[in-house]
Amino acid sequence: MRTAGKASLIGGIVVGLACLALWMAIAHDLGGSTLPWFGAGCVVALAIGTWIRLADL
User: Fold this and answer.
1) What whole-number distance in Å separates Cα of residue 45 and Cα of residue 12?
2) 7: how many CB neighbours lie within 10 A of its CB?
3) Is residue 13 included in any domain, yes or no?
4) Which residues touch 11 (CB under 8 Å, ≥6 apart)?
5) CA dihedral defined by 24, 52, 49, 25, rounded to 10 degrees?
6) For each of the chain's 57 residues, which pLDDT tens digit applies?
7) Domain containing residue 30
8) Could you tell me if 23 and 44 are in contact, meaning their C-beta atoms sit under 8 angstroms apart?
9) Does 37 reside within a domain?
10) Residue 1 included in any domain
11) How many domains does the chain have?
12) How many H-runs (helices) and E-runs (strands) does the chain carry?
């Protein structure tokens, strides 16, 4: 089994943070920039960042 490289880890982190920033920007525009929206954004960003890391994109 091949292990994922450091670039995959960094890419997953960057994509996760970018997803969270976009999530919060959209939530702010929709008037939902509260703690539950932030929590949901963190879950989504974590899931997408993990997927990028594991898929080695």
Assistant:
1) 10
2) 9
3) yes
4) 52, 53, 57
5) -10
6) 566 678 888 888 999 999 999 999 999 999 877 899 999 999 999 999 999 888 875
7) 6-55
8) yes
9) yes
10) no
11) 1
12) 2, 0
Structure tokens given for 15: 């994509």
Q: Which residue bears the tokens 């993990």?
A: 50
Q: What whole-number distance in Å separates Cα of residue 43 and Cα of residue 37? A: 10
Amino acid present at 44: V
Task: For residue 56, give the amino acid letter.
Answer: D
Length of the chain: 57
Letter string b/e over residues 21-40, b meaning 16 or more CB atoms within 10 A of that residue's CB: eebbeebeeeeeeeeebeee
